[in-house]
Amino acid sequence: AQKITQTQPGMFVQEKEAVTLDCTYDTSDPSYGLFWYKQPSSGEMIFLIYQGSYDQQNATEGRYSLNFQKARKSANLVISASQLGDSAMYFCAMTDNQGGKLIFGQGTELSVKP
Amino acid sequence: GAVVSQHPSWVICKSGTSVKIECRSLDFQATTMFWYRQFPKQSLMLMATSNEGSKATYEQGVEKDKFLINHASLTLSTLTVTSAHPEDSSFYICSARDITGLAKNIQYFGAGTRLSVL
């Protein structure tokens, strides 16, 4: 069975600094996808970044980058130049390439300090 | 990215009534949609996979007679909470993939529905 683990319930970061949110996963499938979503207090789930298991390079999307270490089964999210608007819950998730359903981690609450 | 619309965003109902939540893919066709439930300060838990033109696939422990799912078209899935009770109060959110698009692996979410059962 697939499993996602986020060990940081809460994180603080100073505005304009970078922050890394940890995510480890477990799966026996050779083909899978890893995702990060942001959930502000309004509740919507905002897609941030995606990494396929066969992708050779780490995914990047603007200020977001995914540090994919396949051997360690980790997929950490790096947010550079943090902004106050980055304060939210962040969820790591994974899916296989069959049914497409997402399995979510427990989430990390990020607070950006001015 | 693809847009998923969910309605209503907030609903309050009396115990024993049924509530219908709609999930629409606005600019793409979705043969499969997903319904999740989220309790406060917790993660999202998949309830069921909604398949266009066929029966939904429910996750273990989810009562299919309690949470009725209908996926009658390629752009609309509905979740009906039947005979709602206070313990059904939660945040319900749907998602869908545009499998024909460039970002075919990405699941896009609706804005969610907060259900409060009195």
Report what the structure shows.
The complex is a heterodimer of chains A (114) and B (118). With 114 residues, chain A is mainly β. Chain A contains no helices and twelve strands. Chain A has strands at 3-5, 10-14, 19-21, 24-26, 32-39, 46-52, 60-61, 64-69, 74-79, 88-96, 103-104, 108-113. In chain A, 32% of the residues are buried. Chain B is an all-beta fold and 118 residues long. In chain B, the strands form two sheets. In chain B, strands 2, 4, 5, 6, 9, 10 and 11 form a seven-stranded mixed β-sheet that branches. In chain B, 35% of the residues are buried. The model of chain B has no long low-confidence stretch (mean pLDDT 92).
Helix vs. strand class of chain A: mainly beta
Q: Describe the global form of chain B.
A: globular
Oligomer: heterodimer
Question: pLDDT below 50 for ≥5 consecutive residues: which ranges of chain A?
Answer: none
Structural class of chain B comes to mainly beta
Outline of this structure?
The complex is a heterodimer of chains A (114) and B (118). Chain A is mostly beta strands and 114 residues long. Chain A contains no helices and 12 strands.
Pick out its properties.
heterodimer, A: 114 residues, mainly beta, 6-stranded mixed β-sheet, 4-stranded antiparallel β-sheet, B: 118 residues, 7-stranded mixed β-sheet, 11 strands, 0% helix, 52% strand, globular
Helices and strands, with pairings:
The complex is a heterodimer of chains A (114) and B (118).
Chain A: E1 3-5, E2 10-14, E3 19-21, E4 24-26, E5 32-39, E6 46-52, E7 60-61, E8 64-69, E9 74-79, E10 88-96, E11 103-104, E12 108-113
Parallel strand pairs in A: 2-12
Antiparallel strand pairs in A: 1-4, 3-9, 5-6, 5-10, 7-8, 8-9, 10-11, 10-12
Chain B: E1 4-7, E2 10-13, E3 19-25, E4 32-38, E5 44-51, E6 57-58, E7 67-73, E8 76-81, E9 90-97, E10 107-109, E11 113-117
Parallel strand pairs in B: 2-11
Antiparallel strand pairs in B: 1-3, 3-8, 4-5, 4-9, 5-6, 7-8, 9-10, 9-11
